[in-house]
Specification:
Blueprint: E1 2-3, H1 13-19, H2 29-43, E2 50-53, E3 56-59, H3 61-73, E4 77-81, E5 84-88, E6 100-101, E7 106-107, E8 112-113, E9 118-119, E10 123-124, E11 129-130, E12 135-136, E13 141-142, E14 147-148, E15 153-154, E16 159-160, E17 173-174, E18 179-180, E19 185-186, E20 191-192, E21 197-198, E22 203-204, E23 209-212, E24 218-221, E25 223-224, E26 228-239, E27 242-254, H4 263-272
Parallel strand pairs: 1-3, 6-9, 7-10, 8-11, 9-12, 10-13, 11-14, 12-15, 13-16, 14-17, 15-18, 16-19, 17-20, 18-21, 19-22, 20-25, 21-26, 23-27
Antiparallel strand pairs: 2-3, 4-5, 23-24, 26-27
Length: 277
Amino acid sequence: MSDVSTSSPIPRVVDELWERRAELSPADAEARHLVVGAVDLLDRGEARAARLVDGEVVADERAMRAVLLAFQVLGMARSQVGDFHHNDRIPLKSTLDGVRAVPGAIARWGSYLAPGVVLMPSFTNIGAYVDEGTMVDTWATVGSCAQIGRNVHLSGGVGIGGVLEPPGAVPVVVEDGALIGSRSMLVEGARVGEGAVVGAGTILSGWIPVIDVGTGEELSRGRVPAWCVAVGGTRQKEFPGGTFGLPCVLVLRRLEPGRRHDKAALNGVLREHGVDI
């Protein structure tokens, strides 16, 4: 991962504010104005906490600093949605153009939701980017600064972890067309490639090995390849106290690149190995 703060659309003044962050408070109207303007760029999708450049995840440290500064320069404010009362520093997102957000869906200001996104009762945190046509299903969460591609399906209860500190840390990235199975957890440094299918209950972080079951080869740490079917598993390892199973992710099958997922066929692949989407 590299950092692109030098080419960030977030103003450089955020770096100056960061250097004196210990002095800032909600009483500093000028700092608050500058930080709100920076986070508004994230809210509109004009800036992103991270992006893919030539296949590499490139983080924008300045964008993450802007989000962290928002918690320092915004005061607590009470709000109400129907019968529900809130007391927070970060308001709810107010621009939902082209987005279907059903009752119970919560998205915070500073997250970007592209036209065609569907939010079931779920939570999307500040700094997250959710691209066109993606479904965030019931009780799924999209953590701070997570980057979710086009036409992704985050199934019920999926947990996409957030990353803010330290600024510049690698956020979770789910690329276009991926399907993440129910109750899976993807946390700091995890990346799922384009068109990949991740079976239910899979846990993936930046340090968890991803292994091809056909060859036994460790393909990566924390990265599920594009156009494959993968599930959670364990790998045996010897320790002084005995042999124990450590978590890993197993690549069961390669898929034809660019071909639309046939859910029945995918379920067949997974059930063959005793798992499901």
